[in-house]
Please model this.
Amino acid sequence: MTADDSQLSINTDLARSVLVAFIRDELGRHGFTRGIVGLSGGIDSSLACFLAAEALGPQNVLAVRMPYASSSPESMEHAGLVIDHLEVRSLDVPITDMVTPLFDRFPDMSKVRRGNVMARVRMAILFDQSAEFDGLVIGTGNKTEILLGYTTLYGDSACAVNPNGDLYKTQIRQLARAMGVPEAIINKPPSADLWPGQTDEGELGTTYERVDRLLHLLIDERATPSAAVAAGFETSFVEETLERVRRNHYKRVMPPIAKISGRTVGYDFLYPRDWGT
Amino acid sequence: MPPYKLGLAQINTQLGGLRHNLAKHLDLIDAARKEAVDVLAFPELSLTGYMLQDEAPTVACSPTPEDETFGPLLKASRDLDLLVGFVDVDERYRYYIAAAYLSAGKVIHVHRKVYLPTYGLFDEGRFFSPGETMRAFDTRFGRIGVLICEEFWHASSPYLLWLDGADMMLFMSASPVRGLTDNDQLQSVAWVERVNQAYASLFTVHIGHSVRVGFEDGMIFGGRATAFGPAGDMLAAGPDFQEGLTLAEINPDTVRQTRVRLPLLRDERPDWVARQLAQIQQPPARGLSGKSK
Model:
């Protein structure tokens, strides 16, 4: 068993055609022809915007930029590159005036708490625009961050459909490059940009290349932890990654309901989300 | 027997939308009629959609002329033979994933899916009862066998139909495709194609495979219906990820040609196989049970 990069290599033409069809079909099933993307200027939301524009047509996609005072100016510029390139509709809703009163109320708020507040305010804006624009919120989270729980619950993870969620970050890069996402966006260090200097890889303590190879081995290939160690990963890295995946599982499922009646949503009242469509 | 034209209807469906799906069937039947199709095969659960879960009991139909879904289909089958997928229910309220073969206004055969995948992304055994029999049946185009998706992953299924006289096997699927790599097909699509091609070759039969397209809750139905001849040659392949009507000319004489040079059916020994199976299954069970680690 090997764990080289080639295992994560994808046919980008195939991925593109499937994901474009997915957006069009899943929105269409529910009677929608329009989509909203929260466009940060990072690679994930840029790719989601490219896919949505191809699926729905640029005039049916609303890209929303929601900068905070400390957001990197580069983020706005990069989002602007995507908007100009695709000619999608766009809207700027700065969040500084919205989140500042809450930050002032709790002056000791940690940067993680502040980051979560910002992510959730952005979610509220996107779902409000969803009603105004008559479109569904297109998710941007990738498989790496979903598995590692590197996401704000009810914040950036909130969406109606997610075309990116089964692609690891390194696969997102391949597809983004193939679809023509600007190289400046693809090549910069990934960051949630919730505070100055924040980078994903700094926070995760590893590179995406490394953790993607491990996750692919453990999750997709169903390798045992000992097989992952035999493939060249340090025991501590394997154990910490698995524990992180387990610990964050609550972010990937609906909250448990106390089953007290004879028939309960989620347990024995079972219908797909696309029920009746 | 003269050649005939097989049509493979590749459709998306509405979940639980019997009326909507019936209308789509009738549209495809019209299109097939214009192409002089003789047998038109739809995918698994073509009248109901696949991921039914608790909706399964509410969309069950009865393959009779009085049924508002089957009535128009039986009428249409006066022009061409039809294979459709639906939810069947028996008199004791057991629900089945089923297929009905209709011809000349009559139900010729109903097959209830025997192998219900209940693992990974599949949950069929939770909502449906398994069928009990797997039989070929006579049609005006010779003896045909029908298998539904998971069934043809069990080699025993086409083997039984082969021994029961089927020289045309119609497979119908609503299987979510998966496995993105750097190949130009998803992994599961390539597997299915290899399997079907192998069966056509091993049993020296025609195989037609009708496949769903579209999405249900993010699961992808990939399309690419295929037909293979008795020498394993691909006769037709439908489009990926979009609806379509794929046509294949079926020349039954190619079965004769193949079997003259490759008499696998002649040399098959079902009595010996049955005796071996009986011995293998004698206690203490071996083989199928496996040893503990």
Notes: The helical segments of chain B are 18-34, 70-76, 124-127, 156-163, 187-203, 253-261, 264-267, 270-280. The two ends of chain B are 54 Å apart (CA to CA). Chain B touches chain A at residues 12, 14-17, 51, 53-55, 180-186, 214-218, 220, 240-242 (CB under 8 Å). Chain B is about 25% helix and 25% strand.
